[in-house]
């Protein structure tokens, strides 16, 4: 029986743990937070099928029960040291011996206040998609002034594809998140006009493009191609935005009641710390460096250290689960060589 | 007083000031227009657009941006041949859109 | 509505406390002749600082640079000469009175930081041309930074806070930051480029309230090439117009600026807009008075408005003076200290 330590108890960590436990390994999940499933706890529903996040959490709670996996909550990796082929991992006053380690630390939402010009944390009616999911849960869509919004803008690519934030990459799931949230908003607030401001809509996966079309056809969501460059507040507390209507080739401005910023995905600071502890390489973007883009996304630069989920690159939940399974397979193959 | 210079009107499109009467009329009668994704396929194939500065996509944008004045001169360039509909990946009934714009322009005052 | 903004660490600027070398502006002395003297007086008399006002320094030639008539190497050498004068006086803190000059000093020192060979070249140029040598300043600030840094000290000596003496209400003051202050190098401006605090901090410290209106960041329209050529001035005035229209709903009672061009044009273009199109942008069909930060500091400290040069504004400042309770003698408005009449003008009245 081999020992495996998984760092991070989000979807990626839990799925990898289940897969590896299924193959008869002794698996430990070390999670910093007081509960499992990470950011999934904050989401109201998932694209593209509007599945409630709770359903997925329930699925994983049931799945976890089938296996004997040690889950160590409120714990961080303090130290890691080589022990022959394997590792010793210290958390609190416990030491774990691991034949293989899987890093599944996940991502962080881009801190939208870094894009000052968009007014997050300056104007009360500017929120992020993360805040909006909470509002979906609370069924609270009132503006700071206590009004039902007449117009809401969904702003794509905040902190992604932006040299100014040192993020050259595309966070890829925000496009469809924006469309999903626009539809969801429209369901809750049928009288409200929803506009999406985008550069291009990257509807890469199954049903995504259909969702976009549905947003136009059934929910009358307006898509305006242009990056929002500035948000400001008017004397009546409403917000103004400036963008280019790139399809008309002219600057455009409009008044709105609420703005939802689609903040991109970034590496956690924690991931960098963990990477340093195990001596694994990171990309310039901060995401963990895979050994091979095509055939070894979960294999890292250091022997016996693997990664799963969004600490490798931005991914949807579906992709995270697939990626976790593939990483588990890579770990198994590795363990067989020991 | 003449200072030898004057102010310049803004080029900014102000959505809040759009004249949406024609847009609403067209959408009411031709729902397929909702799904246009501004790919420009229509414009590329347009017979009129190959010889004049008519632009089917721009015509739609004018409609969406409430630019009623420009729409009048733009729409007259369309020959209503329907070639645009053959290529549209979203199945927008562009000929009907053009017809509806013409109708709406005639009845513009009544629509308001 | 009063948007308060915490200056993040990224945009908190180091500003020297004392011992400054003062670089005057070439155009401010014409546009707002009292402001620079007021700055020196406030620094020396109210704040007890040491500042060296040097008759030997020249224009930074920034206007020529931005109008494409002065090459970059030339302006660098001129700036190097200013630094040489500072070095010769044994001073390390450089203060520029003009926002464009300030922008030039930053742009050039940043260039030298990234291209040390360029710095060496300029050292050679200056040596050959003038025989002078220079050290780089330890701190470069704009004069508004210094006033901002000492705003609470000024508030402590304040005689006329920015409060309407009749109603007790805080005056609504719009700030306008010169583009060259923080838009080129946001980290060199207090609060950065988007939510610059240098003027807002003064307004709040002195009892007024600030207004964050949608076109707050828009350029005043000065734009060098635009105002230099008469035929282009339409661009300039249209930019100011855009700002005026955006601030109008807030009914601002004054505009505070930190750039010579902005103060000039936000003042003069109101008159031009009125003459051309009959429009006024202040509350109840009035004009909005425009102040430099030195003028405003001088006013709250109780300086005589005519010593501050406020009679040189196109828009009449007297209704504003009445609001905060400053006493003035209209008879002396256009007279020198010795009583000589220096011409007369009926300023545009604001109610």
List keywords for this structure.
heterotrimer; A: 338 residues; alpha/beta; FAD/NAD(P)-binding domain; 2 domains; five-stranded parallel β-sheet; elongated; B: 112 residues; mainly alpha; Fumarate Reductase Iron-sulfur Protein, Chain B, domain 2; 8 helices; 2% strand
Q: What is the level 1 CATH name of the largest domain in chain C?
A: Alpha Beta
How large is the count of helical segments of chain A? 7
Q: Spatial order of the strands in the main sheet of chain A?
A: 5-2-1-9-20
Our count of domains of chain C comes out at 2
* Biggest sheet, spatial arrangement of strands of chain C: 2-1-3-4
Give helix % range of chain C.
Answer: 40-55%
The CATH homology group name of the largest domain in chain A: FAD/NAD(P)-binding domain
- Highest-level CATH class of the largest domain in chain A: Alpha Beta
Distance between the termini of chain C: 23 Å
Q: Which structural class is indicated by helix and strand composition of chain A?
A: alpha/beta
Beta-strand content of chain C: 5-15%
**Unreliable stretches of chain C:** none
State the secondary-structure class of chain C: alpha/beta
Report the portion of residues of chain A in β strands.
25-35%
Spell out the helices and strands of chain A N to C.
EHEEEHEEEEEEEHEHEHEEEEEEHEH
CATH names the topology of the largest domain in chain C as: Rossmann fold
Number of domains of chain A: 2
CATH-derived architecture of the largest domain in chain C: 3-Layer(aba) Sandwich
Rg of chain A to the nearest angstrom? 21 Å
Name the shape of chain A in a single word: elongated
The ordered string of helix (H) and strand (E) elements of chain C is: EHHEHHEHHEHHEHHEHHEHEHH
Protein described:
The complex is a heterotrimer of chains A (338), B (112) and C (351). In chain A, 28% of the residues lie in helices and 27% in strands. Chain A starts with a strand and ends with a helix. Chain A has 2 domains: 3-106 and 268-337, FAD/NAD(P)-binding domain (3-Layer(bba) Sandwich), CATH 3.50.50.60; 110-265, FAD/NAD(P)-binding domain. Chain A contains 7 helices and 20 strands. Chain A is elongated and about 65 Å long. The model of chain A has no long low-confidence stretch (mean pLDDT 95). In chain A, strand 12, helix 4 and strand 13 form a beta-alpha-beta unit. By secondary structure, chain A is of the alpha/beta class. Chain A has a 5-stranded parallel β-sheet, sandwiched between helices. Chain A has a 5-stranded parallel β-sheet with strand order 11-18-12-13-14. In chain A, strands 6-7-8 form a 3-stranded antiparallel β-sheet, with no helix packed on it. Chain A has helices at residues 11-22, 53-65, 129-138, 174-188, 208-219, 269-278, 317-337, and strands at 3-7, 26-30, 45-46, 51-52, 70-72, 79-83, 86-91, 94-98, 100-103, 107-109, 126-128, 151-158, 193-198, 222-225, 230-233, 239-245, 250-256, 258-263, 265-267, 305-307. Chain B has 112 residues and is an all-alpha fold. Chain B has one domain (18-111): Alpha-helical ferredoxin (Fumarate Reductase Iron-sulfur Protein, Chain B, domain 2), CATH 1.10.1060. Chain B is 52% helix and 2% strand. Chain B is built from 8 helices and 1 strand. Chain B has helices at residues 21-29, 41-45, 47-51, 56-64, 68-75, 83-87, 94-106, 108-111; one strand spanning 13-14. The longest helix of chain B is centred in the C-terminal third of the chain and has 13 residues, at 94-106. Chain C has 2 domains: 15-143, Glutathione S-transferase Yfyf (Class Pi), Chain A, domain 2 (Up-down Bundle), CATH 1.20.1050; 159-332, Rossmann fold (3-Layer(aba) Sandwich), CATH 3.40.50.11810. Chain C has helices spanning 28-31, 35-46, 62-66, 72-88, 99-114, 116-130, 143-149, 151-156, 179-182, 198-205, 225-228, 233-247, 260-277, 293-301, 318-324; strands at 20-23, 51-53, 93-96, 139-142, 172-176, 209-211, 254-257, 290-292. Chain C is 42% helix and 9% strand. In chain C, helix 5 crosses helix 6, helix 7 (143-149) packs parallel to helix 10 (198-205) and helix 12 packs across helix 13. Chain C starts with 19 loop residues before the first strand and ends in a 27-residue tail after the last helix. The mean pLDDT of chain C is 92. The chains are: A alpha/beta (338), B mainly alpha (112), C alpha/beta (351). Chains in contact: A-B, A-C, B-C. The interface between A and B is medium-sized, with 16 and 16 residues.
């Amino acid at each position: 029986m081999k020992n495996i330590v998984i760092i991070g108890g989000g979807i990626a960590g839990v799925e990898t743990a289940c897969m590896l436990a299924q193959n008869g390994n002794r698996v430990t999940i070390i999670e910093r937070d007081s509960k499992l499933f990470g950011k999934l706890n904050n989401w109201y529903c998932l694209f593209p099928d509007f599945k409630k996040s709770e359903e997925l959490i329930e699925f994983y709670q049931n799945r976890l029960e089938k296996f004997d996996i040690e889950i160590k909550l409120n714990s961080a990796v303090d130290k890691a040291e080589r022990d022959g082929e394997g590792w010793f991992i210290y958390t609190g006053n416990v030491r774990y011996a691991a034949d293989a380690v899987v890093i599944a630390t996940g991502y962080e939402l881009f801190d939208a206040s870094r894009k000052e010009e968009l007014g997050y944390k300056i104007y009360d009616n500017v929120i992020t998609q993360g805040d909006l999911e909470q509002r979906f849960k609370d069924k609270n869509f009132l503006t700071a002034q206590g009004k039902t919004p007449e117009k809401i803008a969904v702003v794509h690519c905040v902190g992604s594809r932006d040299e100014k934030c040192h993020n050259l990459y595309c966070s890829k799931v925000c496009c469809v998140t924006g469309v999903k949230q626009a539809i969801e908003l429209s369901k809750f607030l049928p009288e409200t006009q929803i506009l999406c401001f985008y550069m291009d809509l990257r509807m890469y996966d199954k049903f995504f493009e259909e969702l976009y079309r549905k947003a136009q056809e059934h929910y009358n969501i307006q898509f305006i191609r242009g990056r929002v460059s500035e948000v400001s507040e008017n004397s009546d507390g409403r917000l103004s935005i400036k963008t280019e209507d790139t399809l008309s080739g002219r600057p455009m401005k409009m008044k709105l009641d609420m703005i939802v910023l689609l903040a991109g995905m970034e590496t956690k600071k924690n991931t960098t710390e963990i990477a340093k502890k195990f001596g694994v390489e990171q990309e310039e973007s901060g995401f963990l460096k895979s050994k091979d883009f095509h055939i070894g996304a979960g294999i890292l630069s250091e022997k016996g250290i693997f990664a799963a989920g969004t600490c490798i690159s931005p991914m949807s939940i579906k992709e995270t689960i697939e990626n976790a399974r593939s990483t588990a397979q890579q770990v198994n193959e590795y363990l067989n060589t020991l | 007083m003449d200072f030898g210079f004057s102010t310049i009107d803004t080029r900014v499109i102000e959505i809040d000031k759009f004249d949406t009467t024609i847009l609403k009329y067209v959408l009411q009668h031709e729902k397929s227009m909702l799904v246009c994704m501004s790919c420009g396929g229509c414009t590329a194939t347009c017979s009129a657009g190959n010889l004049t500065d008519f632009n089917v996509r721009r015509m739609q944008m004018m409609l969406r941006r409430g630019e009623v004045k420009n729409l009048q001169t733009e729409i007259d360039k369309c020959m209503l041949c329907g070639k645009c509909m053959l290529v549209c990946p979203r199945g927008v009934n562009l000929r009907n859109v053009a017809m509806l714009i013409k109708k709406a322009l005639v009845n513009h005052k009544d629509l308001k | 509505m009063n948007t308060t903004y915490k200056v993040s660490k990224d945009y908190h600027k180091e500003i020297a406390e004392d011992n400054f070398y003062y670089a005057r502006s070439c155009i401010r002395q014409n546009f707002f002749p009292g402001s620079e003297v007021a700055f020196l007086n406030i620094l020396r008399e109210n704040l007890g600082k040491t500042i060296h006002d040097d008759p030997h320094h020249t224009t930074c030639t920034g206007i020529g640079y931005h109008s494409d008539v002065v090459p970059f190497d030339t302006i660098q050498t001129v700036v190097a000469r200013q630094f040489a004068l500072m070095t010769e006086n044994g001073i390390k803190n450089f203060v520029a009175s003009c926002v464009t000059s300030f922008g030039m000093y930053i742009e050039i020192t940043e260039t030298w930081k990234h291209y040390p060979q360029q710095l060496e070249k300029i050292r050679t140029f200056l040596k050959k041309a003038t025989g002078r040598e220079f050290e780089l300043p330890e701190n470069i600030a704009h004069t508004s930074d210094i006033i901002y840094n000492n705003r609470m000290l000024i508030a402590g000596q304040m005689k006329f806070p920015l409060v309407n003496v009749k109603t007790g209400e805080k005056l609504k003051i719009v700030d306008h930051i010169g583009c060259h202050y923080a838009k080129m190098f946001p980290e060199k401006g207090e609060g950065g480029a988007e939510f610059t605090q240098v003027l807002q901090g003064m307004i709040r410290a002195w009892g007024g309230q600030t207004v964050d209106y949608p076109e707050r960041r828009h350029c005043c329209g000065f734009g060098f090439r635009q105002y230099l050529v008469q035929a282009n001035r339409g661009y300039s005035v249209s930019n100011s117009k855009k700002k005026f229209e955006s601030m109008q709903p807030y009914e601002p009672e004054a505009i505070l600026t930190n750039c010579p061009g902005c103060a000039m044009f936000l003042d003069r273009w109101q008159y031009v807009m009125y003459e051309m199109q009959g429009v006024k942008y202040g509350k109840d069909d009035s004009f909005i008075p425009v102040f430099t930060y030195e003028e405003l500091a001088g006013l709250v400290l109780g300086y005589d408005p005519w010593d501050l040069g406020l009679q040189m504004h196109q828009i009449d400042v007297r209704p504003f003076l009445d609001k905060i309770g400053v006493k003035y003698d209209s008879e002396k408005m256009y007279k020198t200290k010795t009583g000589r009449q220096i011409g007369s003008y009926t300023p545009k009245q604001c109610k």
